[in-house]
Specification:
CATH architecture of the largest domain: Alpha-Beta Complex
Number of strands: 13
Helix content: 40-55%
Order of helices and strands: EHEHEHEEHEHEHHEEHHHHHHHEHEEE
CATH superfamily of the largest domain: Spore Coat Polysaccharide Biosynthesis Protein SpsA, Chain A
Number of helices: 15
Strand content: 5-15%
CATH topology of the largest domain: Spore Coat Polysaccharide Biosynthesis Protein SpsA, Chain A
Strand order of the largest sheet: 3-2-1-4-7-6-8
């Protein structure tokens, strides 16, 4: 196919007619000539007048749409790409408002001969009058964007989002487009980015390609997304088991013991009382109207619970042929259907559960301390905890192999003992690696990485190294070119 345009903008949409119109109007204000780009809107089963709005919309650029029954964002984007005639594909979400230099910035980020996938910033406006859940999402996205903008930061597949992403059409076709078995929200962008990385495509960040996000989801909508992400995380791990250890699915045992036990209890209650997720959202919505100081922490814990609720459901389901997922998570909030039992019985159950939760949360710390004092059971020391980080690595490596060692520069806490504590950590790490490390230098063929952050593959310390295996908990094995 001959490239008729320099850029094809693909905006999948579902039931967001007003928001989509704002995006189309912003694209009409681009600094590129309208003859250089086209806009394609795949309508994923919308019944809110979106198609009629597009037919009436007048713009200097070419605007086309294609309607399909609701199949999810991956299938909608692929439908738009099949119509595209531009050399460069720019994916944009329907709640984004790009700045006038948006398309020009994406175009400049792809010099001739490059093979890149470029993401741009998607900030949420800092509106103090916005609901607390929007402020919570804004803070999370801002932290993520600040990390991407750090000098020398290397993007990993978990940094890629298709709400503001550009790549050459032939490169996208080469890797097979997006995986349409991801019908629910989440992880179709990670899965695409992982295949792009395996195909040798560079992941890059363009801070000038800004598209402002108009976030309009309430807490229930955010919770539904988290349940869906739990489902799609399991689907992603089944498709790419080699990276499962680097996903959120591998972090179930992390966090405080108190929260792990609380979450396990909440997940158990969800199987007993199907309306429990809705009740939790109702409680959080009540807090929204009387925001406590730790409201954002409550959001984080609740959304963690909703993620694992979806993951648990997906793990209990038998994968269908082709790896497709159900069209709606079984335990998502506001699910229609029989809740079981009478209203009075549900009220009694919920009251008992709340009472048990309150009593347990109030006394679990004292109970744990009392049991520890009674049994005299020693707590794991720091050496034992570091040993656990490298157990899988030590099983894989031969007892005598030449490997190097890399980590991020330490940022010791302030105080007179900071240097001593940093040195102690380094010594403990070396102690745990003694059976594997013979020559602790980076010139070896294999390199062990030991990191604290959640996405260690993106550390600047890993430049020039090829990841071989992610053992989780910040431990990775790399291959280095011989010096």
């Amino acid at each position: 196919m001959t490239d008729a345009f320099a850029i094809s903008v693909v905006i999948p949409t579902y039931q967001r007619c007003v928001s989509l119109r704002r995006s189309l109007e912003a694209l009409a204000r681009q600094s590129l000539p309208p003859s250089d780009y086209e806009v394609i809107v795949p309508i994923d089963g919308s019944t809110d007048g979106t198609q009629e709005m597009i037919e009436r919309f007048r713009a200097a650029y070419r605007l086309r749409s294609v309607w399909q029954p609701n199949q999810g964002r991956a299938a909608a984007r692929n439908a738009g790409v099949r119509l595209a005639e531009g050399r460069l594909i720019v994916f944009l979400d329907d709640d984004m408002e790009p700045v006038p230099g948006f398309l020009r910035a994406h175009q400049a980020a792809h010099p001739p001969g490059s093979r890149r996938a470029v993401v741009g910033p998607v900030p949420i406006a800092d509106d103090r009058s916005a609901p607390p859940v929007v402020q919570y999402r804004r803070a999370g996205i801002e932290a993520h964007l600040n990390r991407l903008a750090q000098p020398g930061y290397r993007l990993g597949f978990r940094d890629v989002y298709t709400g503001n992403l550009s790549l050459r059409r032939d490169v996208l076709q080469e890797v097979g487009g997006l995986d349409e078995s991801f019908r629910l929200y989440g992880h179709e962008d990670y899965e695409l980015a992982l295949r792009l990385m395996k195909a040798g495509v560079e992941l890059a960040y363009c801070p000038q390609a800004v598209a402002h996000q108009h976030y309009d989801k309430d807490l229930a909508g955010l919770a539904r997304d988290c349940v869906a992400r739990g489902h799609t995380a399991v689907l992603f791990a089944r498709k790419h088991p080699e990276i499962a250890a680097s996903l959120k699915l591998a972090t179930y045992g992390e966090g405080s013991r108190k929260w792990r036990l609380t979450r396990a209890l909440m997940l158990g209650i969800s199987g007993w009382i199907p309306s429990f997720p809705d009740r939790l959202i109702g409680w959080l919505s009540w807090l929204d109207r009387r925001p406590p100081r730790r409201l954002h922490q409550y959001y984080t814990l609740a959304l963690d619970y909703f993620f694992w609720l979806g993951a648990r459901q997906a793990l209990r389901e038998r994968p269908e042929a082709g790896g497709s997922e159900p069209s709606q998570p079984a335990g998502s909030p506001h699910r229609a259907g029989d809740r079981g039992g009478s209203a009075r019985r549900r009220g009694v159950r919920i009251g008992l559960v709340v009472l048990v939760l309150f009593a347990w949360l109030s006394s679990v710390r004292l109970l744990r301390r009392a049991v520890g004092d009674f049994t005299g059971a020693p707590r794991p020391d720091e050496i034992t905890r570091y040993e656990a980080r490298f157990r899988g690595l030590r099983e894989l490596l031969p007892p005598r192999v030449r490997v190097g060692y890399v980590t991020q520069p330490l940022t010791p806490a302030a105080g007179p003992d900071s240097a001593r504590l940093a040195f102690k950590r380094y010594l403990l790490t070396q102690y745990a690696l003694l059976p594997a490390i013979v020559l602790p230098d980076k010139g070896g063929r294999l390199v062990v990485g030991n990191f604290d952050e959640a996405n260690p593959i993106d550390s600047t310390a890993t430049r020039g190294l090829t990841p071989i295996r992610d053992f989780g908990n910040g431990v990775m094995l790399f291959r280095a070119a011989p010096e």
